[in-house]
Design a protein that fits this description.
With about 1200 residues, the protein is mainly beta. Among the domains are: about 50-145, Immunoglobulin-like; about 200-235, no CATH class; about 240-330, Immunoglobulin-like; about 335-420, Immunoglobulins (Immunoglobulin-like, Sandwich); about 520-600, Immunoglobulin-like; about 610-700, Sandwich (Immunoglobulin-like), CATH 2.60.40.10; about 705-795, Sandwich (Immunoglobulin-like), CATH 2.60.40.10; about 810-900, Immunoglobulin-like. It has seven helices and 87 strands. The strands form 20 sheets. Strands 1, 2, 3, 5, 7, 10 and 11 form a seven-stranded mixed β-sheet that branches. The longest helix has about 30 residues, at about 445-475. It is extended and about 155 Å long. The relative contact order is 0.03.
């Protein structure tokens, strides 16, 4: 039987401080929950302290006959005296209770060797010194083992005593084997328990184990049982998941896991093995065989020191409902050859081997206490006879060293893997993986396995012979004699009635039935207030005697108790209930009895000071937290509830309710105005309830004034309005109202002033006749301004005066997207200036006029472009003049006009006239145009029709010519021709299909003048095919040894290098370049050899002086450029003149020589300008001007930047 103690308050006789020695103390709070501290004096001397627990005893559930103990550590100065007691008994018997103290660890131990069921109780530990005492309670539960004859009648006796909890005996649905009685053909209940908790993939193996073959019947019944079980589980748990069956771990323990969300965290959890309750511990660690560890919602049940007897069905119950069942199977197997230590070098495989005594399909392998599985790192091998098992650790590294173990059932063995560094490996380089294997058992495993296999076969044959011999002996033995069946007793035959002479009939005999006494009205549990009378009443069906008992002792009328009998009614009256009147009362009449429990107590009450403090209102601002706290004396069975405006508050969301033994707190987070109201706390126990009331005031700015805004008076100089106070003043009174005004059609609001809170009207005297105004009113209190109350419609000062009609609109132009109109102002504005116009349109065949602009968004001009039109639709328009009073009379309608484009000759929009495409890429020529009606598009190539494989894509306003894969032969002048009924237009686009140029020919060097070398080269083969090809010259000498560009954009095949110094070697490279890119260079011979120089001799003859002076001239002019936006650009021209002319660059006749956006060079007459990224504003006419004393020369070009 499982005996569970009941927890009671109170101090056992002879324990704790004596009321005569110590005054009523001051309650203190311990840092350890569950410890009650009483301080005997108001202030402690310096350096002294009252007792307290740093470690309190832990509740224990233990099996009968085991060693039970409690441990506690106490502090205090002076050193407290520690004593132990129990609620229902004495602890003075030293053979059953022993108290010990360890000065080294400061632990106080209370020991119970060979604990018995009658020791199950609530125990108390007291720590007392001269300044106070500390008390803590702890519960001991004892599980009874077996059945005892001398306790067979105990349940009945306990029932008489009224302790029904100890009568109940917890039982699992799976009975112990000794109690199992199943009929032939009946399925073991263990089968259904395993199926309910198993995965579907395990159904087949479980059915095979129990011999169940009708799967359809099994699944149907299983679904019914699962549904019933889930309904039972829902009474105690919210969710149940992650059921992991029991398995052996690497450390030699076995465990199973379950994720469980309990509805009540205090619910009792029980563990059964084969139907017998198993004791376990939560906090004693290795002191008990079974343990429970809880991590959040996960419960892990573990079992240590595994033995073969540990096999069986384990079940987990919450209260009396099963949650999970799992079977622990322990096969009879042992290791014939165990794992041996393996030493391996890096990048080598390591092998662990073992041989089992019985075939085993799969054993568990662990590495450094982690389970190992087949994969890239590990190979797990099993022989055909399932006796040899092998683990291969592939490609060993230093991090793989450690202990590896094999586990078969509850048997295990382990060995070290030692990984040594590869001494032959090169430092800093990773070596290749080795093909060798290290390790192994060092014995012939196959031979050992074969010998074991022969032994197993022999054992099986011997067992078969023994079974056969037993069966033959049983068949040869004579059947036991059965005792003869008793002869059936024959019933006497009924006698025939004798015929008698007729005589006078005898008087009838009336038999009165006997009435058995029955209790018609029994006793029930009652709660009585201390000091008040209480009555127990029993009603019988007949008048009979009876007696009254309290806690097993008979009661008689006397002091405080009166027993009355009135016919069939028996009453027991308690005149004034006291604490010792609590107990179990029983009425007995013959063999009949009824009983009920009387509990004496008081209604909860508050301290008057705490009640006065709580009644004060809590005042906060919006968004702040409101906190309420109410202390009360600790009591059992006390229910604390919080209410707001009569509605009970629940913990959650923005409400936090904290319940402590001696107080309760309510926290309302981020309060709003709607949270204001009456706050009430209620304490309730079986004897009654008490309430305390407070109020929450949440301050906020007021709500907006109540509308609508009414117009009291409006004249040409005054507008008076009024409103109503706000419904919500924000918790504090409104101090004043603020009024703002806005003139209709404007966006500016101006403050007019404020009025006091007792006045809800305002008179605006600063108004203009005919104008409209909007007003808004704010309410103000100490917390701020409210939202505004605004007038629904504008209020006009005085009478409305509208303008006369303007002239009828006239159509200026019309297209499919826009119709431009104009009109004349009204002839009569009626004395009020016109501030704008409102335009309306009406579609043909409709009667609805649609305004194109609002009255507060007037058209200020007498013309307007209407863009909200549908192509092809016909419209007429009218216009109204707007003044301060609003829109006046509309004008006569305009003539009907159709929204379509006027006929126009085709014209092209910003076309490109030059396109470069790399050979092999697709070429796209995109031309946008405008024309009405839509034109017919024709494309030509060099004035000839385009080829069939050239695609033309025409859409509205655009035409594209696409060459999918261009070739050099596709270079040409392409012409687009657009033609409609009005006319036609054409445009030429030059398409240049080219590729990176080929390398120029051989380079020759020649010196004609001292210090100058003429560099000449054969042209690139692409020069004739590409008129935009030019050359780039790079030079490097033996002094610098760095290549630098000395000439760029040369359209000739010669270049004169200057500053050629004797004794220095020079090299030149010639590149061909076009719009696509740069060619490979052509290398010159080395310059600096004496044979390459021109000998200059002087024969002493005076030479004739020649003049080389000449005016500037342009050798190579500028070319037209159309680069895309963001691209780089080079402009180059060649200039000649002597003396050397000064060169200036101009953009749109403005000199740009000093502009940092342009980089300009002049290298011996080759003038270049470079733009890193062209912009739209770089488009224009560029001009180069060369000037010297003899004259002037210039050339110009045009630059167009494409988007």
């Amino acid at each position: 039987m499982f005996r569970k103690s009941g927890v009671k308050d109170g101090t056992a006789t002879g324990q704790g401080p004596d009321d005569e020695n110590y005054p009523v103390g001051i309650k203190k709070k311990s840092r350890v929950p569950g410890v009650m501290i009483t301080q005997f004096i108001e202030s402690l001397p310096e350096g002294k302290s009252h007792p307290d627990f740093t470690r309190k005893p832990i509740a224990l559930t233990i099996q009968e006959g085991k060693f039970a103990f409690f441990k506690a550590i106490v502090t205090g100065d002076p050193q407290p005296t520690v004593t132990w007691s129990r609620n229902n008994g004495d602890v003075s018997d030293t053979s059953r209770y022993q108290t010990k103290y360890d000065p080294n660890s400061n632990e106080h131990t209370f020991e119970m060797p060979n604990v018995q069921p009658d020791q199950a109780d609530t125990y108390k530990c007291f720590a007392v010194n001269e300044f106070g005492q500390a008390v803590v309670t702890v519960v001991l539960n004892v599980i009874e083992v077996g059945y005892k004859k001398n306790k067979a009648k105990q349940p009945a006796a306990e029932a008489i005593d009224g302790n029904f909890k100890t009568v109940l005996k917890r039982k699992s649905k799976i009975r112990p084997k000794a109690e199992q009685e199943r009929k032939e053909g009946e399925i073991d209940p263990k089968f259904w328990e395993l199926l309910i908790s198993a995965d579907k993939k395990d159904y087949e193996s479980i059915c095979a184990e129990f011999g169940v073959t009708d799967f359809r019947w099994m699944l149907k019944k299983l679904n019914e049982m699962k549904k019933e079980r889930e309904e039972e589980q829902a009474q105690f748990v919210k969710s149940l998941s992650n059921l992991k069956p029991i398995q052996v771990n690497a450390d030699g323990t076995a465990s199973f896991e379950i994720d469980m969300d309990l509805l009540d965290p205090s619910s009792s959890i029980f563990l059964y093995k084969d139907g017998v309750m198993v004791p376990y511990t939560k906090e004693l660690g290795d002191k008990m065989k079974h343990g429970l560890k809880q991590v959040g919602r996960k419960y892990i049940f573990s079992m240590r020191d595994l033995m073969p007897d540990d096999a069986g069905l384990y079940q987990l119950d919450v209260e009396d409902v099963n949650m999970f069942s799992t079977e622990f199977k322990i096969p009879m197997v042992d290791f014939l050859v165990k794992l041996q230590e393996v030493k391996a070098t890096e990048r080598e495989d390591a092998v662990f081997e073992c041989v089992l005594s019985n075939p085993f399909s799969k054993i568990l392998w662990f590495g450094k206490n982690l389970p190992l599985e087949q994969g890239d790192k590990y190979d797990i091998e099993v022989s055909e006879d399932k006796l040899i098992h092998r683990l291969v650790v592939k490609d060993c590294m230093i991090v793989d060293k450690g202990i590896y173990s094999a586990c078969a059932g509850i048997k295990s063995c382990n060995a070290w893997l030692v990984v040594e560094a590869d001494k032959d490996a090169q430092k800093g380089k990773k070596t290749a993986r080795k093909t060798t294997r290290a390790g192994g058992s060092g014995v012939d495993l196959q031979k050992i396995a074969e010998e074991q296999q022969v032994k197993l076969v022999k054992d099986r044959e011997e067992r078969k012979e023994q079974i056969k011999a037993v069966k033959e002996a049983a068949a040869a033995a004579p059947p036991p004699e059965t005792p003869p069946a008793p002869a059936p007793t024959e019933a006497p035959a009924p006698k025939a009635p004798e015929s008698k002479p007729a005589s006078a009939p005898a008087p009838p005999v009336v038999e009165v039935p006997r009435i058995e006494p029955v209790i018609t009205g029994g006793l029930s549990d009652i709660y009585a207030l201390r000091g008040n009378p209480a009555e127990l009443s029993v009603t019988m069906n007949i008048d009979s005697d009876g007696g009254w008992f309290k806690d097993g002792e008979q009661l008689n009328s006397g002091a405080g108790v009166a027993i009355k009998k009135d016919g069939t009614s028996h009453k027991l009256n308690i005149r004034s209930c006291r604490d010792d009147d609590s107990g179990v009362y029983r009425f007995v009449s013959g063999d009949l009895s009824t009983q009920g429990k009387v509990t004496v107590g008081d209604v909860p009450e508050f301290d008057p000071d705490d009640l006065h403090k709580f009644s004060k209102p809590v005042i906060i601002r919006v968004g702040q937290n409101a906190a309420f706290k109410m202390p009360f004396p600790p009591q059992e069975s006390l229910v604390v509830s919080w209410f707001k405006d009569g509605t009970e508050l629940k913990d959650g969301g923005g409400i936090k309710i904290v319940r402590e033994p001696n107080h309760s707190r309510l926290l309302l987070k981020d309060c709003l105005r709607t949270d204001a109201g009456e706050i009430k706390i209620q304490l309730k126990n079986p004897f009654g309830a008490v309430e305390a009331t407070s109020r929450l005031i949440v301050l906020d700015r007021p709500g907006p004034p109540e509308g609508p805004v009414e117009t009291v008076e409006t004249t040409s100089s005054i507008i008076e309005i009024k409103w109503s106070p706000p419904k919500d003043d924000g918790g504090s009174a409104v101090t004043n109202y603020i009024i703002e005004r806005q003139q209709a059609g404007q966006s500016l609001w101006t403050k007019l002033g404020d009025v006091s809170a007792d006045k809800t009207s305002f008179r605006d005297r600063n108004v203009t006749h005919g104008k409209k105004y909007n007003y808004r009113i704010y309410a103000e209190n100490p917390e701020g301004l409210s939202d505004s109350l605004e007038t629904a419609d504008s209020i006009m000062a005085g009478i409305m005066i509208l303008s006369g009609p303007p002239g009828a609109p006239t159509v200026v132009s019309a297209s499919k997207t826009c119709i431009k109109l104009t009109w004349t102002p009204p002839e009569d504005d009626r004395g009020v200036p016109v501030i704008g116009y409102q335009l309306e349109k009406r579609k043909k065949d409709t009667n609805q006029w649609i305004a194109l602009n609002a009255v507060n968004e007037p058209i200020e001009d007498v013309s307007y472009a209407v863009k909200d039109v549908t192509e092809g639709a016909e419209y007429e328009f009218r216009v109204s003049a707007i003044n301060e009073s609003g829109a006046g009379d509309p004008s006569p309608p305009s003539a009907m006009v159709c929204a379509k484009n006027p006929n126009m000759r085709p014209c092209f929009k910003d076309p490109e006239d030059f396109i470069v495409v790399r050979a092999g890429n697709s070429a796209r020529i995109k031309i946008c145009y405008e024309a009405e009606p839509p034109p017919q598009i024709t494309w030509l190539k060099d004035d000839e029709p385009i080829s069939p494989w050239t695609h033309v894509i025409n859409t509205e306003g655009m035409s594209q010519l696409v060459i999918p894969s261009s070739k050099r032969s596709d270079s040409a002048i392409y012409t687009i021709i657009a033609k409609n009924s009005v006319g036609e237009a054409s445009f030429d686009i030059e398409v240049r299909v080219t590729d990176e140029p080929k390398t120029p020919g051989p380079v020759e060097l020649e010196q004609t003048v001292q210090g100058k070398v003429v560099v000449s080269w054969a042209p690139s083969p692409d020069q004739e095919l590409d008129d935009r090809l030019y050359y780039v010259v790079s030079q490097h000498d033996s002094n610098i040894r760095m290549w630098k560009t000395v000439a760029d954009r040369l359209f000739t095949n010669t270049y004169t290098a200057i500053n050629i110094n004797p004794g220095t070697e020079y090299h030149f490279r010639i590149y061909a370049k076009n719009d696509v890119g740069l060619s490979d260079p052509s290398q010159s011979p080395t310059w600096g050899v004496n044979s390459n120089r021109v000998q200059i001799t002087s024969n002493g003859v005076n030479s004739t002086e020649l003049s080389f002076e000449r005016p500037p001239s342009i050798l190579v002019p500028l070319k037209v450029h159309t680069p895309p936006k963001g691209y780089q650009l080079y402009m180059t021209c060649a200039v000649r003149g002597c003396p050397t002319p000064t060169v200036s660059w101009y953009l749109n006749d403005i000199c740009i020589n000093s502009d940092s956006n342009y980089y300009m060079t002049n290298s011996f007459g080759v003038c270049s300008m470079y733009i890193l990224r062209v912009r739209s504003k770089d488009s224009g006419d560029y001009k180069v001007v060369a000037v010297n004393p003899l004259g002037k020369a210039e050339c110009s070009t045009k630059l167009t930047v494409r988007d």
